[in-house]
Amino acid sequence: MGMREHGSLELSRRIGFALEECAVLNDIASVTLQTAIAGLGQRSRVTANNIANSETPGFTASDVDFESALASAVADGQPGRAAIDVTPSTDPAGVNGNNVSLEDQFVTATKTTLQEQLLTGTLTAKFNWLSSVLKG
Q1: What is the mean pLDDT of each run of 10 residues along the chain (136 residues)?
Q2: Quick one: pLDDT at residue 80?
Q3: Whole-angstrom distance, CA of residue 7 vs CA of residue 25
Q4: Residues 87, 2: Cα–Cα separation, whole Å
Q5: 134/136 Cα distance (integer angstroms)
Q6: Which own/partner pairs from 47-52 qualify as long-range (CB within 8 Å, at least 24 positions apart)?
Q7: 51 near 109, Cβ under 8 Å?
Q8: Residue 130 half-sphere exposure, CB side, CA atoms within 13 Å?
Q9: Total-model pTM
Q10: Taking phi first (over 0 means left), then psi (-120 to 50 degrees means alpha), and beta for anything else, what does residue 101 get?
Q11: Which helix (H) or strand (E) holds 64?
């Protein structure tokens, strides 16, 4: 469980590399937004898995962290290379050995959804602006 989520990291790298091919879309802001959206997507999947296993005896919840890695990658000028880490939760387990707090997971799910909506709205607005500029 404490392993880096290679699929999401690879997706993040592919986004970065794909954007390098298109000069109009590879500015640091666009790549940062897309990488953050990928991190939030991974958090949504992990949170859904935690909720689905809330009654599974012995299940250990997972957490997703990408914000600090993204900030560091942005500082280095390479936001598309930020790691998206999935780690086991350190919250204490209950009687059945499960450490999922449904209340915490629902808060995380709601917060993540709102963040995704904000970032996708921002990116969409940027693409719409580019589209209108290109159309003249």
Answers
A1: 47 51 73 95 98 98 97 96 96 96 98 97 88 82
A2: 93
A3: 23
A4: 4
A5: 5
A6: 47/105, 47/108, 47/109, 47/112, 48/109, 50/89, 50/100, 50/105, 51/100, 51/102, 51/105, 51/106, 51/109
A7: yes
A8: 12
A9: 0.78
A10: beta
A11: strand 62-65
